[in-house]
Design a protein that fits this description.
By secondary structure, this protein is an alpha/beta fold. Helices cover 40% and strands 11% of the residues. The longest helix has 36 residues.
Length: 342
C-alpha cells in the first residue's frame, strides 16, 4: 500500500507509516511466542516423562495416633496403636492398647490371677507363652515372640482382638526371663510394658503345691487326666487328698533358693514400671484387683474366676511328714511358714 503524504505548508512534509504493517508485525511476534511456548512445554513434558519411567517413589502414608484430649500426656509412652497382620482392628484402630507382663513362679496363683484378668471385657492375657522352649532359645526368638503378642497377632482363646484395651501374658521366672534381664528390661521400657509381679510369701505352701502337681502328672487322679487347676470343689477335694513327703534335709536350702530367685527378679526389673502383688494378699482381699485395674489404666469391673483352690486350711493337713517339717523349720527364719496365713 502506498504511503500517505500530507502537506501542511510548502516547507514541511509529514509521511505516515501504513497502519497495516504494524498489525503484521504484532502478528509475527504473537506467532513466534506461541511456537516458542509450545517448544518449551514439549521439552518439560519429555523430562517429566523420562523421570517418571526411571524413578518410582515408594510413599508410605503413616497415620498419626489421635490422642484424646483428656488423656494424661505422661501416659502417652504406654499407649499403643497396633497394626496386626492377621486381622483389621476396624473401628477400634484408634483405641489405645496398653501392654503388660505378669512375672511369676509356678504354683504361685498366676493361673487363677490370669483368669480374673481375662474376665475383664477389654483385657487379653495369653497364658504361659514361653513354656515352649523354642520361643526362648535366645534373645532374638524372645523378641520375635514378644512382638507378635504385643502386635495382637498372637491368637488364643483369651484374645479379644480388635477391641482389647490391655494385652499381655504370664512369664515364669525360669523360662528365659532371668537369663536375659538387661535386654528384656530395655525392651519393656522401650515399648512401655507394665510389669505385674505376682509372688507368694509362703514358699512352703508353694512347695507343697509343686510336689502335689508333679505327682498328679503321673498319677492322673481325675479320670486319668492331669490337671493343674480345677473348677469344682469335688475335684479340689480329690486332688488335696494326696499328701507329699517333703525332703527335710534340703528344705531350708530349697526355701532359700525360692526366695533368692524372687528377690533377684525384683532387683533385675526394678527399673520398669511395675507393681508387686502377693498371692496371699489377693486371697484375703479380692479388692486388690481394683489396684491392678487402676495400674493398667482400664475401666473398673467386677472380675471373676471359675477356678477353685486345691489346698485349703492348715499346712499340717497337706504334708505327710508334718512333724519332721515342723521340727526342721522351728526356730529358723522360715518358722513363720508353719502358721496359717489365710
Amino acid at each position: 500500500m502506498a504511503e500517505s503524504i500530507v502537506f501542511f505548508n510548502k516547507d514541511a512534509i509529514i509521511i505516515k507509516a501504513p497502519k497495516k504493517s504494524s498489525r503484521v508485525l504484532r502478528l509475527i511476534v504473537l506467532v513466534f511466542s506461541m511456537v516458542f511456548g509450545v517448544y518449551i512445554c514439549s521439552i518439560c513434558f519429555k523430562q517429566i516423562n523420562i523421570q517418571t519411567k526411571n524413578t518410582f517413589l515408594d510413599v508410605e502414608v503413616i497415620e498419626r495416633p489421635c490422642y484424646k484430649t483428656f488423656i494424661d500426656r505422661s501416659q502417652i509412652p504406654f499407649l499403643h496403636y497396633p497394626n496386626p497382620k492377621t486381622f483389621k482392628r476396624s473401628e477400634c484402630a484408634r483405641n489405645p492398647v496398653r501392654l503388660f507382663a505378669i512375672l511369676s513362679m509356678q504354683r504361685s496363683g498366676s493361673g487363677w490371677f490370669e483368669t480374673l484378668l481375662n474376665s475383664h471385657i477389654n483385657v487379653s492375657s495369653n497364658g504361659e507363652i514361653f513354656g515352649q522352649k523354642s520361643r526362648r532359645n535366645n534373645i532374638s526368638s524372645i523378641i520375635i515372640t514378644l512382638d507378635s503378642v504385643y502386635n495382637l497377632d498372637w491368637l488364643t482363646s483369651s484374645s479379644k482382638n480388635e477391641c482389647s484395651a490391655a494385652i499381655g501374658f504370664k512369664w515364669m521366672l525360669n523360662q528365659g526371663l532371668m537369663e536375659h534381664p538387661k535386654e528384656i528390661v530395655d525392651y519393656f521400657n522401650d515399648k512401655g510394658v507394665s510389669v505385674i509381679f505376682l509372688l507368694r510369701r509362703n514358699m512352703l505352701r508353694r512347695l507343697v503345691s509343686i510336689l502335689a502337681n508333679s505327682y498328679d502328672k503321673n498319677a492322673r487322679i481325675l479320670n486319668g487326666i492331669h490337671v493343674s487347676h480345677v473348677h469344682s470343689h469335688e475335684e479340689a477335694s480329690k486332688l488335696s487328698k494326696y499328701k507329699p513327703m517333703i525332703n527335710t534335709a534340703s528344705l531350708t536350702f530349697d526355701l532359700k533358693e525360692m526366695e533368692t530367685t524372687a528377690m533377684k527378679a525384683l532387683e533385675f526389673f526394678n527399673g520398669t514400671r511395675h507393681m508387686i502383688l502377693y498371692y496371699e494378699d489377693l486371697i484375703k482381699n479380692p479388692s486388690k484387683m481394683i489396684q491392678v485395674q487402676d495400674f493398667l489404666k482400664i475401666p473398673r469391673m467386677e472380675l471373676t474366676s471359675q477356678q477353685i483352690k486345691i489346698h485349703k486350711g492348715a499346712l499340717s493337713e497337706h504334708i505327710k511328714n508334718w512333724v519332721d517339717v515342723n521340727k526342721t523349720l522351728y526356730g529358723t527364719s522360715y518358722e513363720k511358714f508353719l502358721q496359717a496365713d489365710y
